[in-house]
Amino acid sequence: MPYLHRHHPDLTIYQTEQECGDGRNDWRLARHAWHLMRHFFSHGATADMYWNMSLLRGGVSRWGWAQNSLVTVDAETRTYTFNHEHYMLKHVSHFVASGARRIPTLSYNGHDNQLVFQNPDGSLVIVVQNDLAEDADVSFLIEGQALSVTLPADSLSTLVVPGE
Predict the structure, then answer these.
(1) 111-160 pLDDT, tens per residue?
(2) What global pTM score does this model have?
(3) Judging by beta carbons within 10 Å of its beta carbon (0-12, 13-18, 19+), is residue 96 exposed, middle or buried?
(4) 11 exposure class (CB count in 10 Å sphere: 0-12, 13-18, 19+)
(5) Rounded Cα gap, residues 128 and 118, in angstroms
(6) How many Cα atoms are found within 13 Å in the side-chain-facing hemisphere of 77?
């Protein structure tokens, strides 16, 4: 994908093949889905699509094997549960507006587990993962101003910085 984007920068690239997971719908695979999303957006994708919107409890797809989904439905109790990957995807889809563009980032301290988008209104959306088992203090330099936050351990956080 980086090769394709480098040699055809005007080509619109969609990531349409989310990995299916194993039906556990756990935080471990939500972190993996975040890693994949970050990789694709950082290498030229303009959209990231998820494979399964909802599956019955147990996660067995129509193809016959267990997969992850954004929502698990319990047909017996007529209830549903939003899964970890739903919330991971919401961090981006809820705050990044149509027409936003990804802003490349640079890290001087080794923390580069974020995506930054600029919305058409000028606001910045920073989605950042702390994959450490402890809280992490991070700072973002935005137009000469430092934005310092403490990220909870093993978390995904979204920061919205209003436009000028």
Answers:
(1) 889 999 999 999 999 999 999 999 999 999 998 899 999 999 999 999 99
(2) 0.89
(3) buried
(4) exposed
(5) 15
(6) 7
